[in-house]
Amino acid sequence: xxxxxxxxxxxxxxxxxxxxxxxxxxxxxxxxxxxxxxxxxxxxxxxxxxxxxxxxxxxxxxxxxxxxxxxxxxxxxxxxxxxxxxxxxxxxxxxxxxxxxxxxxxxxxxxxxxxxxxxx
Amino acid sequence: xxxxxxxxxxxxxxxxxxxxxxxxxxxxxxxxxxxxxxxxxxxxxxxxxxxxxxxxxxxxxxxxxxxxxxxxxxxxxxxxxxxxxxxxxxxxxxxxxxxxxxxxxxxxxxx
Lengths: 120, 111
Hints:
The complex is a heterodimer. By secondary structure, chain A is mostly beta strands. Chain A has no helices and eleven strands. Chain A is 0% helix and 55% strand. Chain B has no helices and nine strands. Chains A and B meet through strand 5 and strand 10 of A and strand 7 of B.
């Protein structure tokens, strides 16, 4: 069974750093792109970026490029999303998902989500 | 404002059929057969229910059907059940972005 398991809820202050994780199991983790998506009540579902764990090829949404870093550790089948300096606007639920399809067009399995709250 | 347009809400009575639309352009929905649909319960992650316009993953009931006409894709839920409540999102491959486009979501209520 394909599963993506994310790290738990985080509460941080503006300016703090954070790294959340997404562990894959039930499939060959290195062979599939992993997507990071965030969800907020006001902005709906929004792309952050994607990573191919086999070679760490990474692509970011233009609006978030430079604001976050996506990485992966093939040895432990885990992808990461990190911030060096959080802002209140980073408050959201963050999902990882496995990306499939000829044009990387389908998110076929999702993690349970990580709630990140950034507040003074 | 989302790139793909969905109605904010759709409702129906148990046993009825409802249809949710997802409108884009010829650069996305209208030009390619790479539309997916997702169902999300409150507080839970989205779950894939349709891919490539009209294909169902093995875990999805045949009460869910996808279709497309021109620049509009549609998701039809037949034999509506209480468990079908929640939010539904469409996505589409697009030529103008690395990433698929998201719809704004449709809240389905079973009356």
